[in-house]
Amino acid sequence: MDKNFSIIGKSLPRSDAFDKVTGVLHQFVSDIKLPGMLHMKILRSPVTHARIKSIDVSRAENLPGVFATVTYKDMIEYDYPKGPPHLGILKLDERVRFIGDEVVAVAAETEEIAEEALDLLKVEYEPLPVIHNREEALAKKAFEIHSGSGNVQGGNPYEEKEGDIAAGFDASDVTVEVNTKLPNASKSVAEPRGYIVAWNLANNSLEVWDTEKSLYRTRNELADFLRIPRHNIRAHCIFSGGDYGSKGQAKYKALTALASKKSGRPVKYLGSRFESCQDEGPKYKTEWWGKMGFKKDGTITAKEIVAFSNIGAYGNATPPEMAPVVIQSYVGPFRFNHTGYYTNKPNTAGMRGWGTIDAVICVEILLDLAAEKLGIDPIEIRLKNYVKPPQKTHLDHYMIGVDGATVLTRHLKQAKESIGWSEKWKGFGKPYSLNGTKRKGIGFSARIHNVDAWMSACNMMWNIDGKLIVYAGVANQGQGSDTVSKMIAAEVAGARYEDTFVALGDTAMNPTTASASGQGLTESNGTAVKLAAEDLKRNTIKTASSYLKLNPVNLDIKNSFVYVKGTEPEQGTPISIITAKLGEIYGYGVFVPPFGQTTHGYAFVDVEVDTETGKVEILNIVAADNCGHAINPRNAMQGAEGARMFNLTMALLEDSVFDPNDLRRLNFAQINSDGELLSVDSPPQTSILVEEPTPFSYVWGAVGITEGAGTATCVALANAFYNATGVRIYEFPLTPARVLQVLHKV
């Protein structure tokens, strides 16, 4: 690892932290007020599944202060040209498919007037059959929630396979099987979704203020849907109070845009907490069946997984294509089959850990079952079966670039010592402590997660005062990407860190930038920033050499000074003098990644289970994640720790409860009655950053970790529960009621 950095590798404070906590920044949706701005509210369906027979908006439109209503009839002339129409991303239509589905939007001078107008709307519904579950959804001649879909996302199950699994199972000495279930966990973000759209009727252009992951996706989706040239839409990034997959639905932006068009005024939509619970898109509920074959020495001979996901009424983000990446991280032929099916539950969406958490839980529990059956150490069975990189996965745009065994063995001794593995590991199904009704156990799991690959570009300049301005356009959702961009830019361009500033995203000012999703920003945006800084440095040295009458070969830049190599930077010429004389100097970088890649990690979890009350208490977590090269170690560790807490809340507490008849959501606190993990409830965590550079990263081998870091803890928790109690548990969350049930105490 290169140690000659002055900025990279330091745990610098977040560049936006002080302004946020002191309230200096007022860039959240609720803080923005535009001249003449209206407020939009949405009438939602009170019925589960119906055809809209009629909508009467006359009384609402005649209410003083109301300027526009938007119904599905206003959307008929528009269509989204990409993807299946039943994804429900942008359009309202003449049907409602769950309680809470959007029916009419009203824009008025105040929120109170808009709310009053909702009561004046008259809608007549024709009930349609309700699809409650998988059996009803996939039955022959089932009523289709989306015409032509067969109630299956994409129209057919998704399948990937490699090799001859029948021969693999025939050659096995031992087989293991498991059925796992994951809940409809909620994102529970601090800030509900919100948008502002101003449609300029004079030149048919839009200005959008958004908290979504990608300003450029917002711009492109709205442009394509509304048939407006993309350059006629300007999207601004504003600070977000969290996302985790809850703010990607462009339908609300389309509604807000049409309300602005009809009214001729800017329109703000700010959803309520209740609406977030109704329609934020919780994680899809999944059921997985898995089977693996093994030789006596622990070598995998075959893998087969069949999965079902209840994606609700729309379900625009089920990730079956990612699951085989997890399966392919271990040797042996495989078959993976996934069916995402529609029901009349509220729509679902991706959530932190998207794409792999379900597969990690199924695959890793199978490995523990096999290790126990074969009498092999749970860590050794994983080390034995990792594929050797580089290996292309079934998705050509994802590569396994780092050896999982290498990641697992790096710092393994430290991790074991920190958790007390040698003292606490007593074997499968054996607690290390018994104290009345309380039993303690320790568990382990590995994990793999995909790193998305996005095209990204960056502009950079020394301004007239010699300050380095970075135009990267990344959505600021609290992940610290601005700080990482600032560090990379300052390091490579030769600026002082305090002289470097990252501009907020703005599609009119910044080039197209990567989406803040799939933990791909570090590589995609980071590489674009690095390339722009390299270009800027070359241009600066060229400009300075002409101004200073010096050979460019002899010049370098550091601490915002151009200086002669072999001398101290401060003996050179400040950039500010050069730009004051010659004007701004620019650099540009664009990165088109050839493919995405994967990251590995692992976790140990120490738990105590009270067999009388069913309470599961996490005593300690020790986890290691490969970040390739830590740009900002503290920021990376904080992100990883947040990911673990996020997934542990799902594993221990969270599920969505629905009425069995009309499927309305019942628990609007977004948690169940057992409570919620707060920061004060956070168990001790030891975060270990493994710096094993990936060969496919262009930012010194660095990759993101803050989605995948949480996926191993769920399995390690389940394995620790078994070792504490001697009873396997395969369904989450591990609420006291479920624990007592599996322990046969109720």
Q: Topology of this structure?
A:
Elements: H1 17-22, E1 38-44, E2 50-56, H2 58-61, E3 66-70, E4 95-96, E5 102-108, H3 111-118, E6 122-127, H4 134-137, E7 158-162, H5 165-170, E8 174-182, E9 194-200, E10 205-210, H6 215-226, E11 233-237, H7 251-263, E12 267-270, H8 273-279, E13 285-294, E14 300-310, H9 323-327, E15 334-341, H10 357-374, H11 378-385, E16 391-392, E17 398-400, H12 404-409, H13 412-419, H14 421-424, E18 433-435, E19 438-451, E20 456-462, E21 468-471, H15 481-493, E22 500-502, H16 521-548, E23 555-558, E24 561-564, E25 573-574, H17 575-582, E26 585-591, E27 596-610, E28 616-626, H18 633-652, E29 685-690, H19 711-725, H20 736-742
Parallel strand pairs: 1-12, 10-11, 14-15, 17-27, 21-22, 28-29
Antiparallel strand pairs: 1-5, 2-4, 2-6, 3-5, 7-15, 8-13, 9-10, 9-12, 13-14, 16-17, 18-19, 19-27, 20-21, 20-26, 23-24, 24-25, 27-28
Helix pairs in contact: 10-19, 15-16, 18-19
Descriptive keywords:
746 residues; alpha+beta; Aldehyde Oxidoreductase, domain 4; Aldehyde Oxidoreductase, domain 3; 3 domains; seven-stranded mixed sheet; 20 helices; 25% strand; globular; EC 1.17.1.4; oxidoreductase; AldOxase/xan_DH_MoCoBD1; Ald_Oxase/Xan_DH_a/b_sf; xanthine dehydrogenase activity
